[in-house]
Design brief:
heterodimer; A: 209 residues; alpha/beta; Rossmann fold; 8-stranded mixed beta sheet; globular; B: 273 residues; TIM Barrel; 8-stranded parallel beta barrel; 10 helices
């Protein structure tokens, strides 16, 4: 079972329905025990960083996120759900993130419209010498198009696995072992997005491996 | 990189897609889910559903349509028309719509834009601005455009450019700008209006109303400066495909997501379909 965490924020149906379309047993889960029992966990999120971070904490699901990530359960953060994995955000100073990935979330570069609300191409980061390739983008070509809606993005760090060009390079995804996150919306990115979600579903089917 | 989006618009009345000119002479044109699937497969970047249902009772049908679309279409879609409250918007967003478009209710109570943005985020809020030229500004030769509501029937006296700017500052993440003078005429977008709104608003602007040829789409993005171009009849009537629209924009030097959107970039459709 894949738990799509329901902490009272925005449109969760899209991620749930896309996973179900792929044949996964995806369900909205609003309790920590349900999240801990899942073979994979998806953390969606829309809106602003601060309200999402507070809602996650108030729901008690923040501890479950730390628990499943610590246990190595396949995990996918989407959009603001991805940003919450970092230490904090310029959007909501003083509201800490989960700190599961190093770095902070920054405003998009100046000189371009905010939000970025468009399809953009993925520039995949080649794996370092001797490291396994991206699991998130298995079978997905460099330059594939995905849909973005955001005004902030995590800074680029060692875990960044792709970026897009929007007034400069902007983090599009990060991967650290089974912990994955995407700034774009795979559930709204057509065939490419479904392929990315199918990669996630495949890792949950192998858990615990 | 700035990508121009191409957005087919479907008018929906009591759960069925209808075609008409300037909100009249409506004829049935099919099932919204089927048409949305077709446009998705052909390479639409987003889809807009405009609910033109008259009665509130029948409008609940649109929530069911949104839910069915969300099960089968995996690109962003907006639902506009008849949304009067945060609760109306919540029902559509929970059903699976990505954005809601508001017009009449926002003019009546601008705070609604801010309330929707606070509740769901600015990316969910599309301010639909229906504008009609109302003659030159007194003492000048500059055109003034007036906001209309209720499907273009009711003039409000509001200046359309200033209103669009106000919507953006209240929290609209996008402006859907329709020229009521051009809507249904196939004479092309009102490019002067589009440029004025694009220059006044810091958020993306979708140009709408009047597309009759692919050249009009290009002009909307180049002369008008729009971030996205919306059209209805040229796609419904099968005169042009999304693929031809994208090719025309690309040939003009604009960046578009290719109509073939498969994993190899060569147009493999959803492998599970």
């Amino acid at each position: 079972m894949i738990a799509v965490l329901d902490y009272g924020i925005g449109n969760l149906r899209s991620a749930e329905k896309a996973l179900q379309h792929l044949g996964a047993d995806a369900r909205l889960v609003d309790d920590p025990d349900g999240a801990m029992a899942a073979d994979g966990v998806v953390l969606p999120g829309v809106g602003a960083f601060g309200p999402c971070a507070r809602a996650l904490r108030d729901s008690g699901l923040d501890a479950a996120v730390r628990g499943v990530v610590g246990a190595g359960v396949p995990f996918l953060g989407i959009c603001v759900g991805f940003q919450l994995l970092y230490e904090g955000s310029e959007e909501s100073p003083g509201t800490p993130g989960l700190g599961l990935l190093d770095g902070v979330v920054r405003k998009l570069p100046p000189g371009v419209k905010h939000p970025q609300m468009q399809w953009n191409r993925l520039d995949l980061v080649p794996p370092a010498e001797g490291r396994p390739g991206s699991g998130l983008f298995a079978g997905v070509a460099d330059g594939s198009w995905v849909y973005f809606v955001h005004s902030f993005a995590p800074e680029r760090t060692g875990s960044t696995s792709s970026s897009c060009d929007y007034g400069g390079p902007v983090t599009a995804s990060a991967e650290r072992g089974p912990l994955w996150g995407v700034q774009f919306h795979p559930e709204k990115s057509g065939a490419v997005g479904l392929a990315i979600l199918a990669n996630f579903v495949a890792t949950t089917a192998r858990w615990p491996s | 990189m700035h990508t121009i989006r191409v957005i087919p618009c479907l008018d929906v009345d009591r759960g069925r897609v209808v075609k008409g000119v300037r909100f009249s002479d409506l004829v049935d044109a099919g099932d919204p889910v089927e048409l949305a699937r077709r446009y998705d497969a052909e390479g639409a970047d987003e889809i807009v559903f405009l609910d033109i249902t008259a009665s509130a009772d029948d409008r609940r049908t649109m929530v069911a349509v949104a839910s069915r679309v969300a099960e089968e279409v995996f690109i962003p879609f907006t639902v506009g028309g008849g949304i009067r409250s945060v609760e109306d918007a919540r029902a559509l967003l929970r059903a699976g719509a990505d954005k809601v478009g508001i017009n009449t209710a926002a003019v009546g109570r601008p705070r609604l834009v801010a309330e929707l943005a606070a509740e769901f985020g600015v990316q969910c809020v599309v301010a639909a601005v229906d504008a009609r030229a109302s003659g030159p500004v007194v003492g000048t030769d500059r055109t003034r455009w007036e906001v209309c509501t209720h499907g273009g029937r009711t003039p409000t006296g509001l200046d359309a450019v200033a209103w669009a700017e106000q919507c953006a500052s209240l929290g609209a993440g996008e402006i859907l700008l329709t020229s009521m003078d051009r809507d249904g005429t196939r004479d092309g977008f009102d490019l002067e209006l589009t440029r004025r709104v694009v220059d006044a608003c810091p958020v993306p602007v979708i140009a709408s109303g009047g597309v009759g040829t692919l050249r009009h789409l290009v002009e909307g993005a180049t002369v008008g400066g729009a971030d996205a171009v919306l059209a209805a009849s040229i796609f419904h009537l099968g005169e042009y495909t999304l693929s031809e629209a994208k090719a025309e924009l690309a040939a003009a030097g604009l960046i578009v997501r290719p109509a073939s959107t498969g994993l190899d970039g060569e147009g493999s459709p959803d492998p599970l379909r």
